[in-house]
């Protein structure tokens, strides 16, 4: 495995069962950093003190153009938190978690947890844990094979377990949802600030970077991956991206929206936990996902998507689900980069 992808080599055999509490918590972090994040920005750091682990938002990795309120940043950290809790359960521990324990004085401190011996993991928890290193965002076209209704129902249950909801967009509303994606693509593609921000997180296929998205994540050849950041930064590609995403949205075996009743940091953390649970559950059934969040990222379009869903609450993420070709994972930062001493 290439050096920048070594962090994906997480196995149950490497859990330090006889190690110190700090070593066990560090293993959980290895699982947490495999969570999805916007542009693979990995906006998190962790602090281990004795038998306590803290999840801290890394605002230096914020995306001020696409995510000015840090909503998606907190959602990404929520996904990492679910990975932490799931990894603890895999080895027979219960993670006692305090959410936003000191919001006024330390707003970046999103969660604090400690481990306590508990019952053995269930078969479902074992399967979800094993899916962590196999879950990869798949931006390529999916096969024209339907996602089973029972799987969609179980994914809805997974979201509800964290106080969120998951709504499939039915055939009658698919075209309108795709139109919102296209409109958002055109607006973002014409925004020089957005293009510069996105380009900063796109890297060549052969990269030493441990974050961002290499060109292969978009299906770029090696040569195209070197040109990609320049093109993204300097040209209005909105119309072309709109056509591409329209095809992906309308042809997706399933197009779903994950949302919450409220729109504040606690709800965003819950949305992230729900997202991670949903994506891992899909992975256990061989189903991949990729995001089409553009209409939610633009304040003027988000209410229109919400109205389309005809459901109370706020849409937080939109993504397609389906069966696709295997894809290479994106790089991850190592423990030495994400654990704050």
Structural features:
341 residues, alpha+beta, NADH Oxidase, 2 domains, five-stranded mixed β-sheet, four-stranded antiparallel β-sheet, 42% helix
Strand count, sense and closure of the main sheet?
5 strands, mixed
Uncertain regions: pLDDT < 50 for 5+ in a row? none
Query: Helix segment count?
Result: 12
DSSP strand content = 15-25%
Total E-strand runs? 11
- Tally of structural domains: 2
- Specify the CATH architecture of the largest domain: 3-Layer(aba) Sandwich
Bulk shape:
globular
H-E order: HEEHEEHHEHHEEHHEHEHHEHE
Strand order, main sheet: write it out. 3-4-2-1-11
CATH topology of the largest domain: NADH Oxidase
Give the C-level CATH assignment of the largest domain. Alpha Beta
Give the topology, please:
Layout: H1 21-32, E1 44-49, E2 52-57, H2 71-90, E3 93-99, E4 109-117, H3 123-131, H4 149-160, E5 164-168, H5 171-189, H6 192-199, E6 202-203, E7 213-214, H7 222-234, H8 238-251, E8 254-260, H9 265-284, E9 288-291, H10 294-297, H11 302-309, E10 314-322, H12 335-338, E11 339-340
Parallel strand pairs: 1-11, 6-7
Antiparallel strand pairs: 1-2, 2-4, 3-4, 5-8, 8-10, 9-10
Describe the 3D structure.
The model has no long low-confidence stretch (mean pLDDT 96). The chain has two domains: 3-135, NADH Oxidase; 149-322, NADH Oxidase (3-Layer(aba) Sandwich), CATH 3.40.109.10. With 341 residues, the protein is α+β, with helices and mostly antiparallel strands. The chain has helices at residues 21-32, 71-90, 123-131, 149-160, 171-189, 192-199, 222-234, 238-251, 265-284, 294-297, 302-309, 335-338; strands at residues 44-49, 52-57, 93-99, 109-117, 164-168, 202-203, 213-214, 254-260, 288-291, 314-322, 339-340. 42% of the residues lie in helices and 17% in strands. A hairpin with a 2-residue loop joins strand 1 (44-49) and strand 2 (52-57).
């Amino acid at each position: 495995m290439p050096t920048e992808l070594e962090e994906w080599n997480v196995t149950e055999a490497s859990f330090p069962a006889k190690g110190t509490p700090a070593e066990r918590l560090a293993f959980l972090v290895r699982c947490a950093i495999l969570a999805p994040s916007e542009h693979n920005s990995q906006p998190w750091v962790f602090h281990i003190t004795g038998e306590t682990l803290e999840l801290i938002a890394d605002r230096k990795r914020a995306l001020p153009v696409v995510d000015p309120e840090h909503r998606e940043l907190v959602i990404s950290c929520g996904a990492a938190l679910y990975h932490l809790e799931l990894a603890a359960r895999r080895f027979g521990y219960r993670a006692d978690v305090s959410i936003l324990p000191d919001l006024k004085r330390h707003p970046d401190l999103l969660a604090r947890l400690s481990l306590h011996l508990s019952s053995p993991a269930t078969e479902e928890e074992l399967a979800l844990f094993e899916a962590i290193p196999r879950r990869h965002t798949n931006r390529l076209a999916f096969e024209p094979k339907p996602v089973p209704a029972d799987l969609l129902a179980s994914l809805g249950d997974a979201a509800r377990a964290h106080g969120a909801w998951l709504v499939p967009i039915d055939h009658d509303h698919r075209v309108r949802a795709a139109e919102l994606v296209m409109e958002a693509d055109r607006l973002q593609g014409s925004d020089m600030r957005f293009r510069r921000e996105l380009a900063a997180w796109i890297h060549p296929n052969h990269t030493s970077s441990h974050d961002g998205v290499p060109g292969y994540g978009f299906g770029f050849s090696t040569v195209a991956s070197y040109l990609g950041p320049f093109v993204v930064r300097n040209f209005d590609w909105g119309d072309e991206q709109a056509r591409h995403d329209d095809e992906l949205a309308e042809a997706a075996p399933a197009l779903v929206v994950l949302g919450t009743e409220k729109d504040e940091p606690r709800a965003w953390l819950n949305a992230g936990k729900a997202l991670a649970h949903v994506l891992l559950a899909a992975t256990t059934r061989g189903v991949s996902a990729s995001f089409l969040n553009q209409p939610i990222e633009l304040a003027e379009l988000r209410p229109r998507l919400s109205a389309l869903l005809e459901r109370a609450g706020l849409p937080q993420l939109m993504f397609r689900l389906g069966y696709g070709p295997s894809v290479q994972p994106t790089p991850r930062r190592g423990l030495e980069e994400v654990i704050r001493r």
